[in-house]
C-alpha cells in the first residue's frame, strides 16, 4: 500500500480510502493481504493493466480528434504552483489567445505532489513543478519532463530588519537566531541551507500561500526564502528582498506531462507557448 500511495503521490490513508471505494464499485476484492504485504488479486491486475491502456488510448483518441481539425483546438488542463502561476500564467493566456484562440486552457493552483497525482489519474495534462522536489516526489515512468526557466531565491525580510539595508549578499549563518516562515515545499530548501550552515531553522509558521507568508514577514513575524522577484513583489505586502551568498539559490521550473499526450496538437501548442515565453 505504501508503494502504491507513493506512486500516486497520496497519503497512506487517502490511498486506502480510494482502494475501498474502488472495491465497492467493482463488487469484488482487487487487493489481498499476503503476510505483511498487500498484493493485487487477479482482478486487480486485469484492472490495472486495463487502466494503463485506457489512459494511453484516451490520449491517442484526443490526438486523432485534434489532428483531424482544421485549427489547433481542444481542452488542456494545467496545474501550477503559486509563483509559477503569478510569473507566467497571465502571459501564457495572452499568447494562446492570440496564436491559438480555439484552445481552452483550464488551470488549477496546486502543490507539486497534487499536480503529479492528477497527472497520473488523467485529471491534468500538464503539471508545473520546481526541480528541487524532483527527488523527493519521484517521477513515474512514461512522463516527459522539460525545463522551462530558472527562478532565483531571495531572502525576504521585514523592511525594518537590521539586515534590510545591506547591499552585499547575506550569509545563511547570520540568520541562525531568526524565526522562519516556511512553505510546505520551500521548507525543504530552507532546512537544507540552514543545516549546511550548521543550525536547524526555527520554523514558527508554515503555509503554502505566498501572500500569507509575505504578509507575516512584512508584519515582522519572521523571515523567509522565496522565489519572489521585484516584479512579483509589487503585488505583495512590502518586504525587503535580499540576495543570499549561496551558489545554489536558484532552481529550475519543470513542465511534466504524459508522453502519450505529446502527440496532441493542443498540448503541443501549450508547451510551445511556454517555451516561447521563456526563450
From TrEMBL:
One of its GO terms (molecular function) is DNA-binding transcription factor activity. Keywords: DNA-binding, Transcription, Transcription regulation. GO terms for cellular component: protein-DNA complex. Belongs to the LysR transcriptional regulatory family. InterPro entries: LysR_HTH_N (IPR000847), LysR_subst-bd (IPR005119), WH-like_DNA-bd_sf (IPR036388), WH_DNA-bd_sf (IPR036390). Residues 1-41 form the HTH lysR-type domain. This is DNA-binding transcriptional LysR family regulator. Pfam families: HTH_1, LysR_substrate. SUPFAM superfamilies: Periplasmic binding protein-like II, Winged helix' DNA-binding domain.
